[in-house]
Structures are given as C-alpha cells and as structure tokens.
Amino acid sequence: MLLLMKPTEFGFSGARLGRCVLIAVGVACLTIPRHAAATQAAVAVDETSIVTALVTDTAGRALSGVEVTVIGTDLRQLTDETGQVYMAGVPARKVTLHIRHVGYKEADLELILTPGVRTSTTMVLRRALVTATALPKVVVREDMVPARYSGTARFDGFYRRKSDGIGTFLTREYMDSRAADRPEDLLRSQAGIRIRYRGTRAYIEFVRCQQVEVYINGFRQQEGFAAFLELNPREIEAMEIYRGVATVPPEFSPQPNDCAAVVIWTRWH
Q1: Which of 3, 97, 190, 260 is least enclosed by beta carbons within 10 angstroms?
Q2: What is the pLDDT of residue 136?
Q3: Which top CATH class is 147-266?
C-alpha cells in the first residue's frame, strides 16, 4: 500500500517542495528546488549569442550607416562611424545576416552561432555597377518655378527636388524673413544642426553625422563650410539640406560615407 504524505508531517523545512512516499520501511522524497525556474530561465538565455561585425568596402575602408539584419528575426542595426555593429540576443543557431548600403551590392553572410559565445566577423561590400541607360528627359513644370527665374535654368533642379518632398528647402522668401547678419544664422533654427564658435569663427556640425558634403552652385567644396561662411547672407538665393544617407541625392553624395549634404545657390542677378 502506498501512502502520500505532506512533507511537514516528517519535519521537512519550507525550503523544499515535494511529496514523500512511504514504501515498506523506507521514505523516498522527490524534491523540486525553488531555483528550478531560475535554472530554466538561464538555459533560455544561454540559447542566444552576440554578433559583432566590421563592414568595409573592397579597399578596406570602414562603411558607416550600413543596415545589418538577421533574417527571420526583428534584429536590425546600422554600423557606426567606425563601420562596426553590435547585435545581442541573436538566436544561437545557423543564421543569415543580410547587409545593404546605398551604392553597394546587397550581400548575405551565414554564421553558425554557439550559445553564450560572441562571434566576430568582417564583411566586405562591393560597389554596385551602374549601367548606362537612356534616362527619360526631366521636365520641370512651369508652375514649379517662380516667374522671377524665367531667364535662367539654374534653379530648375532645386524646385524639382523640392517637389519630391525629400529634404529641407529654403527659398528666397525664407532668407529675406530671417534678415540674417551672418550665413550660419540661416541654419541656426534647423533641426539636427549645431553651430559652435571658437573665438569669432563658426563651426557647423550635424548631429550623428561627421561627413557632410557642401555644394555651392553645383560645385563641391573641398573645405566644407569654409566658402559658405564667407558669403554675405544676402547673396544666397536658396538652400537644400539633406539629413541621413538615404535622403542625399546621388549628385550630392560622391563618397560612400556621406550622411548629409548642404547645397547653396547664390543669387543670379
């Protein structure tokens, strides 16, 4: 005959839970420690891994802003300014990383991960080949461009890009309303732009972006904002501001790590 008895009847402490079975002349106890749930949770945590990766181009230059995704999960990160990415909580099994970046061929990388072990890898992206094709002629509607520009085509591209709605566009009306004394004052109220001074010299910085391209009348400035800061604000007719690598038009992004651009157009008469 088997008797089921509560542990307290044999003086067991509350530190263990279980049931005792009286068999002939012996007592056998099946116990389940309280820390069993914690042990199971630890096992679940150990089923994940950490992945660190460096993404470069074929010349070995680090690429920032590269999107790295673990296929089949919600894990997605962008590489930092050193081209590195850190991903925690990656399932410890065979996984595939999908890598993509503007101007480069997309790539996949398979990894076999071990629970609780960090895996480091390097990924190399190749430039996407551009095939010369006949592009449709771009037509700028007359109602896009103010009548005051009827004697020039300089601002056609400005208003065409403005109609696309990507970026921030400052027109002559904005310039006049600011009544700026210095060119940097035109950027002072723009989100994500910080202006600092060393003595009387201004330094323009973009938050979370260190490689900003500056163009004046379509020409890239080798010294960044230096030429812009020499302009009289009343000489500036229009400006375009692009924040983020995905928003910069190709014609204003010659370098792979360009993450912002400012395009200045001066008055033509």
Answers
A1: 3
A2: 52
A3: mainly beta
**pTM, to two decimals:** 0.48
CATH class (in words) of the domain with range 47-125: mainly beta
Neighbouring residues of 37: CB distance < 8 A, sequence distance ≥ 6: none
| CATH 2.60.40.1120 intervals, the chain | 47-125
Q: Which has the closest alpha carbon to 167: 175, 154, 158, 176?
A: 158
Read off the DSSP letter of residue 143.
Answer: T
Check residue 137 and give its pLDDT.
53
CB 84 within 8 A of CB 78: no
- Nearest-angstrom CA–CA distance, 248 and 265: 17
Write out pLDDT tens, residues 162-203. 998 889 999 989 988 988 999 999 998 898 999 999 988 999
Residues of the chain with CATH 2.170.130.10: 147-266
Measured at the alpha carbon of residue 187, what is the angle toward residues 186 and 192, in degrees to the nearest 5? 165
Among 51, 47, 70, 53, which Cα is nearest to 116's?
A: 47
Whole-number Å distance between alpha carbons of 172 and 238:
6
Q: Which long-range contacts (CB under 8 A, 24 or more apart) does 104-111 make?
A: 104/57, 104/63, 104/128, 104/256, 108/71, 111/51
CB contact burial 184-197 (16+ within 10 A = b; e otherwise): bebbeebeebeeee
